[in-house]
Fold these 3 entries.
Entry 1:
Amino acid sequence: MTQPTDIRRVALALASTGVPVLPLSRGKRPVANCGSCTKSACGDRPHMLAAGPCRCPSPCHGWAAATTDPDVLTSPSWAPAWRGASAVAYHPGGAGLTVVDLDDDAAVAWARAALPRTRTVATTRGEHWIYQGAMRSANGVRPGVDIKSLMSYARWLGPGTGITTSLPGAVRALLERDQPTQARTAHAAARPPLVMSAAPGGGGACPHRSPAYLERGIAMAVQRITDARTAIHNTTYGAFLAVLSTHGRCGCLTDAHIQQLFTAAHARGESPRHCTDAWANAQTALGM
């Protein structure tokens, strides 16, 4: 049986390579909120943002707790988590990686036929294919296939074999298949139509399909964040919420658009964790 000290030793070794890590509980789940942050009383949720960002040293926010800091990983506040740990997890997106999680033999066979080869790690039921480059995470992008990158975690199962190659367009394109075109169209039709001067009479085509409309919305959100002098965290969350409420359900947003927003927030002092937390909170608030 693997001992907690062995698990932590693996985590420290992995963290030393720049990969953010966290302990997984016996049920292979990330550690839940600690006592000080129960129900996110630390201010991690949208309605509590005025309390400020969480500075709790415990591993209490799942994938967002992943860190490369050895002082944090070996701190007394993390000791209970390591004592109850069964494995090490890591945040692929935080390391600039994407894991294509292939859950069965059929999914593995599909990947071998459709995707460029890369570093491969055997799992209990299938394989993890690891690419260099981060993207949004999504489950069930096709039968037996999940994408684990930003705002997600993957279990560390060893270094695997092969050479890590660049994230291919074929993997990014899987997000477009996450919701079939007919489902996206039906979802958009069920929403109240947006009133825009340039929109065709009777609702017509979805205005989100206009590149100029989308780019203008991103530019306005970036400017809103850039102009903020106080309440940066609240302003960032508000800008993310505005973008997602308008463009988050129709498939228009790309990783490049999200990166523009995150870059603007970083320039105003927001950490990568705070940006990903604010983005996730905005999605939750909108029921995404």
Entry 2:
Amino acid sequence: MKALFTRYRLLFFHLIFWTVLISYRLFDFTQYLSIQQALIFFGIPTALNMCISYVHYFFILPYIYGQKKVRRYFVLLTFTLIAFLYLRFLSDHLFVVHLVPEQAYYKSIHLARVLSVLWGYLSFTVLTVMIKLAVDWYELENKRKQLENEKLSAELKYLKSQINPHFLFNTLHNLNYLALSKDATASDVIIRLSNMMRYMIYDTNKEEVLIKEEIQYMKDYIELEKIRLNQSFTLTFEVGENVGDCKIAPLLLFTCLENAFKHGVSDKQKSWVTVRLRREEETFHYWVSNSKIAQPSTNEPSGFGLHNLRKRLTLHYPMSHELQVEETDNQYSIHLKITGIV
């Protein structure tokens, strides 16, 4: 269907071009000649120009445009020009000479006349080729954008698949910890984990989710961490007005929060996490700060979550986001700003 639409569009461009040209030239010629004379003086050359343009367009141009056979292209073009030169001179001899018998221009073949006819043929041939090139460029650009969108979609799905196992590892580790300690809050943990799994399975496949849904997911995660860490950290969680009804790509906000708990909270050290969300007109701000704690040596790659966050932001908000990361001796801060969010 799309290819058929493109063909009709190309045909439309050609019809518009010839309609405008013929209408203007016919109007011009009929100011001084009868309609019959105008059709002979203008109609025959125009018909030949159209014929050679489309002979070249359909039968000669493909040799160089698709097959890259340059020699064959120029040989065929030369023979075609010679054949149409003969047709033009023959038509002038049969029809035009009788209308203007006093004009010596049409009674002989000379260099100026040959160059004039060749110039007309080549001009119209180039114009029709330019239409084809313009339409082909438009189609190529559409295909390029389509492939780019498909690539972005595939990369987003890949990045989400990387996030899911990482998250499951952390939450199952928390649940295992509570089960081993026979904590009475294990039932509450299972319910919250169930809610989080429902969000992971159904909502993260969406292109965007409401921020309030992501916030609820984050709060469930925080409650799980509170139980595991025995409330041994200080939390500040502030949500501004008109934030929850905005939409955002799923798990973007959670990635920053998860990193904060992973690298900035411990039940053996004094630690804290601060989360703030605010909307200013169409600009969304998200701050996450956490204390820095001594990390035990591990073989797990560092910076995995932040690396994924940067890639997802680039893919989903290529020209409308800003991510600032600041690190001091005792704290780590992230400020995410997304413009145009609604």
Entry 3:
Amino acid sequence: MARKTIYGIDVAAAQADRRARLAAWARDILGHDFADLALLDRALTHGSASRQAGSSYQRLEFLGDRVLGCVVASLLYGRHDEAEGRLTARLHAMVEGPANARVARGWDAGALIAMEPVSRGKGLADSDNVLGDVAEAIVAAVFIDAGWPAAYMLVQRHWGPLMAAEQPFLNDPKSSLQQLALKRRLGMPEYLVVGREGPDHAPQFTVEASVRGAAPATGSGRSRQEAEKAAATALLTRLEP
């Protein structure tokens, strides 16, 4: 029987190669050996590349958000003898987009996300939103694959370093904007790409940052992440007294 090909690519061989890469990556980077590798594949599949309903990371992200929050809350409770309000602030800092994206970048997860070329060309594989969602989906994949102990160990190993007492990573402008917005009950900041210029090898992004009740601010950079930080800095300058 002839093997299925798409644009001359042997589909079965490509899928086998991806499974092998994911298995090695999970073992070496995440520290987890998957019994059901399809879970990890789904956690690293963007909606633009999903072949059928439920085959992207979206449902896993929903579960991973809750598992991650529970583990981080447990770790914070054990590490910091503080009032509820301060613990809540730390929790938000640890489980929202910028922190999760930071962890995913440490894994170099963006390179493994299955995504349509057009979406990748727009910088989505390096955006905080996508990387943060992927990090949560991977937590869920580990939880489903091996239960609470495995998920706890994953979060402790990879989110733990962000839990230093002073949390210096919060100096990141996006994290600072998020904390200010939450403190003032303005909701989560939103980022929108409003411009992209230049060739694929040297793009220039323009991003608009906004929070409820304030005029948006824009920033530019050589990547979507850089432009989001510039926009966050501009909006912080406007909001801070």
